[in-house]
Specification:
5-stranded mixed β-sheet
Length: about 525
C-alpha cells in the first residue's frame, strides 16, 4: 500500500532534506530500492523510491571521453545527470534519496538541477541515517495499513452479518456494505427484478438513474444460466456483477458500482454480502415452492368467500391479494413450463404487487388487481404465453371469473391472450360462462358432480358431445366399446333427468358443461 512521500520527508528522526520544490513531493511510494548503477531501471518498478550514494556518477565522470579544461574538484563533473534522471522518470520512479558523505560531499548540483527540471523529487539522506531506516519506515507503514485494512474488512463483514439477521435483513445488509465500501449496491432476483436498492453512502440514487447499464449486464448473465462474475470499468465507473445460485438454478444476481477499483480486502467484504444474498434468495425460493400446497388450500377458502381470512393469511408469505376489483388469468398447467410458473409466483410475491398465483386443477390461475392488469397483459404478450383472461369482477364473482378465464383459454390460439369480452363479442359460446348460466349449471349438476361416478360420466359426456354425439369416434378416444359408452350415457340421463336421445337434452347438457369447469374437481 503506498506511503505518502511527504510523510517520509516529515519523519523527524530521519532528518531528510528536500532539494526540489515542495509540490514535487505530493505523491506516494510503493516500495524502496537502493542502487548505484548508472541504469537501475531494469530493477525498479513504477512508484518506487530509489536510494543511491552516487558512485555511478563518479564512475561515469571518470569514463568521460571529453577531457576537462582544468582539474575539477567535483568528482562527478562530466556525469550525464540529465540522461540518468530521464531514465528514472521513464521507468516511473517516484523519487530519489541521495546519501551524502559516502562518495561525494553533498548532493551534486547537476543532479539537483536535472531533478528540478524533470519534476522528480530529490532529497538528501544524511550520512548517519542508514538506507534501511527508510526502507523499514515504508515497510512498517505498509504492514500497518494492511493490518488496518484487515481490521476494516473484518468489521465490515461483522456489521453486514449483524444487519442481515436484524430487522432490515438483506436490504439492511446491502446498505451497510454500500456504506463501508463507498459504492452502490443492487440485488436482483432470478427474473432480473430489483430486490433492494439501498443507494450510495455519499448520495441517494434511484435505480432509474443508475441501474440501466447494470440491469442489461444482469439480464445477460442470468440468461446464460451459469454461475459467473464479471468486472469491468467504463466511463469512469468500475462495475462488478455476480450471479447467485448454482449453474442451471440461479436465484439472482448482485452488482456493485463505484468510481475506483475494489481491492482484495474489499472483495472479501463483497463475497460476504454475495453469500448472504444467495442464502436469502434461495431460502425465499424454497419457501415459495413450499407454500404452493398451502396456497391451493387457501384458494378453496377464497371460493367459499373467506376473503378477509385468506388476505391475512397470505400476508405472512409476503403476498397481497388484489383489492376489490380484479381479473382472473388462466394458463394450462400441463403446458406451462416450471420456469414460467416460477416467474408468475415471484411476481405475485413482490412487496409492491397485488397478484395471487395458484394451481387449481388443470390450470394455473393468476388473480390480478385491476390497477396492474395492463402491466400483466403486456407481460403475458411479451412472454408469448397462451392465456385466457376474465372480465373485471369483485370477490363475490370469483367463481364466475374463473369460468370465464378457463373458457377464454380454451378458445385462445397459441401464444395469445384472449379476453372474455372479445370471446362474448365473437361467439355465443362465451355467453355460456356468464353469471346466470354458470350458476344454473352448477345448481343443476351439483349432485352429479359431487359423486365420483357422476363426475366421471360428465367427463365421458364432454368427449361424446365434442364428437357431435357420434358413438364410435368418441368410444375410440375414450378407449371403450361404443356399447359401454351408450350405457354410461343412459346412466347419466337418469342422474340428470335429461333425455340424451333428443337434440334438446343433448344441447342442454352441452350448454351446462360449457358453462362450468370440471377441471376444478379432482
Amino acid at each position: 500500500m503506498p506511503t505518502p512521500l511527504s510523510e517520509i520527508i516529515a519523519t523527524e528522526r530521519l532528518a531528510l532534506r528536500p532539494l526540489t520544490d515542495s509540490t514535487t513531493f505530493e505523491r506516494s511510494v510503493t516500495w524502496v530500492h537502493n542502487s548505484d548503477l548508472n541504469d537501475p531501471t531494469p530493477f525498479v518498478s513504477e512508484g518506487q523510491l530509489l536510494l543511491t550514494t552516487g558512485r555511478q556518477f563518479v564512475d561515469n565522470a571518470a569514463q568521460s571521453t571529453v577531457p576537462p579544461a582544468e582539474p575539477a574538484a567535483d568528482p562527478t563533473a562530466g556525469a550525464d545527470f540529465d540522461s540518468y534522471v530521464a531514465r528514472l522518470v521513464a521507468a516511473g520512479v517516484a523519487a530519489i534519496g541521495f546519501g551524502t558523505e559516502v562518495i561525494t560531499h553533498g548532493v551534486p548540483a547537476g543532479l539537483v538541477a536535472a531533478c528540478a527540471a524533470a519534476g522528480l523529487p530529490l532529497f538528501e539522506v544524511p550520512y548517519r541515517i542508514p538506507f534501511i531506516a527508510i526502507s523499514r519506515l515504508v515497510a512498517d507503514n505498509e504492514a500497518e495499513q494492511t493490518r488496518a485494512g484487515f481490521d476494516r474488512a473484518l468489521a465490515a463483514q461483522n456489521d453486514i452479518a449483524r444487519a442481515a439477521v436484524g430487522k432490515g435483513r438483506l436490504a439492511a445488509a446491502a446498505a451497510v456494505a454500500a456504506e463501508r465500501l463507498g459504492c452502490r449496491v443492487w440485488i436482483f432476483d432470478a427474473d432480473g427484478e430489483l430486490v433492494s436498492e439501498p443507494g450510495d453512502s455519499r448520495k441517494q440514487t434511484r435505480s432509474a438513474d443508475a441501474a440501466p447499464g447494470i440491469h442489461r449486464s444482469v439480464t445477460d448473465l442470468l440468461g446464460r444460466a451459469r454461475r459467473a462474475r464479471v468486472a469491468d470499468g467504463a466511463a469512469g465507473e468500475f462495475r462488478v456483477v455476480q450471479t447467485l445460485g448454482s449453474t442451471g438454478r440461479l436465484c439472482g444476481a448482485i452488482a456493485w458500482v463505484r468510481d475506483t477499483e475494489f481491492g482484495a480486502l474489499e472483495r472479501s467484504v463483497m463475497t460476504v454480502l454475495a453469500a448472504l444474498a444467495e442464502v436469502s434468495l434461495e431460502q425465499t425460493e424454497n419457501l415459495r415452492v413450499g407454500h404452493r400446497a398451502i396456497l391451493e388450500q387457501l384458494f378453496q377458502l377464497l371460493k367459499d368467500g373467506r376473503v378477509d381470512s385468506v388476505r391475512r393469511a397470505v400476508r405472512v408469505a409476503g403476498i397481497e391479494l388484489p383489492a376489490d376489483r380484479f381479473a382472473v388469468a388462466a394458463l394450462d398447467l400441463s403446458e406451462t413450463s416450471a420456469s414460467v410458473r416460477d416467474v408468475l409466483e415471484r411476481r405475485a410475491a413482490r412487496s409492491d404487487s397485488r397478484i395471487f398465483a395458484v394451481a387449481d386443477g388443470r390450470h394455473l390461475l393468476v388473480l390480478i388487481d385491476a390497477k396492474q392488469l395492463a402491466a400483466e397483459r403486456r407481460f403475458f404478450a411479451a412472454s408469448d404465453l397462451t392465456v385466457g383472461l376474465s372480465a373485471e369482477v369483485g370477490w363475490p364473482e370469483l367463481t364466475v371469473a374463473i369460468t370465464q378465464a378457463v373458457r377464454s383459454l380454451e378458445a385462445s390460439p397459441p401464444a395469445t391472450v384472449t379476453e372474455f369480452a372479445s370471446l362474448v363479442g365473437e361467439s355465443f359460446f362465451g355467453l355460456l360462462a356468464s353469471s346466470s348460466v354458470a350458476d344454473i349449471a352448477h345448481a343443476r349438476l351439483a349432485s352429479v358432480i359431487e359423486s365420483t361416478e357422476g363426475l366421471g360420466l360428465l367427463r365421458f359426456a364432454q368427449v361424446w358431445l365434442r364428437h357431435n354425439g357420434q358413438w364410435d369416434p368418441a368410444a375410440r378416444e375414450l378407449g371403450i366399446h361404443r356399447h359401454g359408452l351408450k350405457s354410461r350415457m343412459q346412466r347419466l340421463s337418469e342422474l340428470t333427468n335429461l333425455s340424451l336421445d333428443t337434440f334438446q337434452g343433448r344441447a342442454e347438457l352441452w350448454a351446462m358443461l360449457a358453462a362450468i369447469d370440471l377441471g376444478e374437481k379432482p
